[in-house]
């Protein structure tokens, strides 16, 4: 069936399912007792999540549950179940229509392990911050237990873990290529991206006819097929490496990605699959994708049509309780404590940073709420949230200052295949006006009972410099001492692989920020974030970044080492050694160096923490090997001292060395990363 990118059925136009007569639940039930109070004998849909259930629109399961409720379905929640057996999955009985399974707001592996593959002992989405309440690869485990509990009930998987693992993908934690999570979980359907449209359409279809029907016209969906159906023309990924990337045109064209068996043994084929998938991500021109897994095919329909502003308003205006489920009692849930007084104003990101999963999951098209909807939510926080002191902790989204930004030309937008609207330069067709955001800020802080409206989301500084008025407004009214931004690096090599602007854009923003702070008579500082060990980064690049940090008197107390998350372009570089940002042609692909050895990864991290005496022996050794022993010494232009404080530096530290000067030396900190 031909997919028309210009049409999308309005999200709230469906005839409601018969169970809507039961009304709205104060909280979606987590027990049979709650179901009985609501007058339910069963649930139509049961959602299983790796997070604690917090009925708030910052948590995906709450949005999904309330959206399905608004369509008339009875929805139950099983949160963080005991996965050692199927009993915990039977607590609400058998769902009438389907299971909905997600790992939660985060990929379970990212949630549970550090970039060095060490187990984390805390979990912000669990009462008390306790770790270990979700399994590794939670989507697979939960789906298996659902199948054990009630084998005949369809299973639909979704959320970020399923979304980022929808095709064959490199798994950093096992250091191998894994199959699509759709196969490993043995689920029936996979929803990817912002899934509201696909979810509502799928739910109503399953309610009418079950699984025995064609789902290929629903966008944002993945399912298994035995083969490509008749009437479709296959475009091999090998033919899509040119600048245009479109050699087969017309209706009913499906792009064949290199097969699972091929990408397992050919790293270059993996890079090609990654490139094609990302270039087929514009809802205006993307085509279905197909990837062979053994004897079966994973079929991906094109990405979903973004929600309109009225639809976004309706989704965020659903009757959320705006609190954790009462079953948790007085136990604190760190993620809730952090966002309880914050407001999401938009979704998506057109930055396209190659290491980030936001674009793969939420898309490049910005989906913004209306001013009235946002102001109404702020008033609800003021009036209904316990402990509110008049401070909105954040008003933003994936990027704080992309609100209402869009392509000036819809025709151009519909055919564009750029991976980023702002790299290598800001596209001339991008409307970068901050006027709507400035107006929103002003109206928000003028609301009765609102003392401060903070911006805690990251600011895209190469956009901000286009609007001096925005920078002035931000600094004068919406910064609380520090503002976080993410230059990620200072050197051209790694920045070109990250698709990030040069450090000159940061310098320009810093000048504007500092000037605005002086004019407002404020003592504010920027908090720049940097990544160590990203593909394409050399030891010299990290050394130069460390020297920049020292010159600018920045001390990185917390640093980030590159973590290859599933499906990211940077992950394709890390695994394959090739650059999917450029055409990937057999024997003519651009090579990229990857930092895989634990010692080198630690060295790159140590350069970011050049001020930590524990790292000095490693840095001294590295600098000597690099022929830069001139950077060892007490001078301001030098990176590390040639003395060692007592009790530091591990086996390389000599007892008593540097003890005389250890307390005398202070590190000036202009900003803490």
Automatic annotation (TrEMBL):
This is YgiQ family radical SAM protein. GO terms for molecular function: 4 iron, 4 sulfur cluster binding; catalytic activity; iron ion binding. Signal peptide: none annotated. Its cofactor is [4Fe-4S] cluster. Residues 335-599 form the Radical SAM core domain. Keywords: 4Fe-4S, Iron, Iron-sulfur, Metal-binding, S-adenosyl-L-methionine. Pfam families: DUF3362 (PF11842), Radical_SAM (PF04055), Radical_SAM_N (PF08497). The keyword Metal-binding applies. Belongs to the UPF0313 family. [4Fe-4S] cluster binds at residues 349, 353, 356. Binds 1 [4Fe-4S] cluster. The cluster is coordinated with 3 cysteines and an exchangeable S-adenosyl-L-methionine.
